[in-house]
Amino acid sequence: MQSKNLTCTEEVRVRFNETDPLGIVWHGHYIVYFEDGREAFGRQHGLTYLDIQNAGFVTPIVKSTCEHFLPLKYGETFNIVTTFINSVSAKLIYKYEIFNQQNLLVCSGETIQVFLDSENNLCLYNPEFFQIWKDKMGL
To answer: d(Cα 72, Cα 84) in Å, to the nearest integer?
Structure first.
């Protein structure tokens, strides 16, 4: 059986305050772009941070990776492709690919988030609301 992954593409424009004196995006902003991708994914697929919070959970990031290949510059637009990677574990795994206006890969990365309940206990099993969402998505 082939695994199904959900994807979302969001267009973003580089803002002036995200660039260094050379006019290129400072490397730390790519993690913010990943969050832009997660937020867009949540809105598109019904798994926003508010949905998670309303269910009584938070999802801190426990791991993030980012590889840079090409620069982005002030004023450019780019697409961030966010893919949810299905896992049997109680975690959210997202992969990211950022493409410039020429559709060249600028950056790729991944984040892993875990579920904590209202008492900050680590969830070892999928919370009920998350399992319901996964079932609805066919994951």
So the answer is: 24
On the question of pLDDT at 9 being above 50, the answer is yes
Q: What pLDDT shows up at residue 5? A: 78
- Model confidence at 139: pLDDT above 70: yes
Please state, in angstroms and rounded to a whole number, the distance separating the CA atoms of residues 135 and 116: 21
Give strand pairing partners of 112: 63, 93
Q: What is d(CA 139, CA 87) in angstroms, rounded to the nearest whole number?
A: 9
Q: Specify which residues 35 forms β-bridges with.
A: none
Concatenated DSSP letters of 40-96 = HHHHHHT--HHHHHHTT-B--EEEEEEEE-S--BTT-EEEEEEEEE--SSSEEEEEE
46: exposed, middle or buried (Cβ count in 10 Å: 0-12, 13-18, 19+): exposed
- pTM, two decimal places: 0.93
Query: What is the number of other CB atoms lying within 10 angstroms of the CB of residue 21?
Result: 6
For 31, other C-beta atoms within 10 Å of its C-beta total: 15
Which pLDDT value is given to residue 1? 39
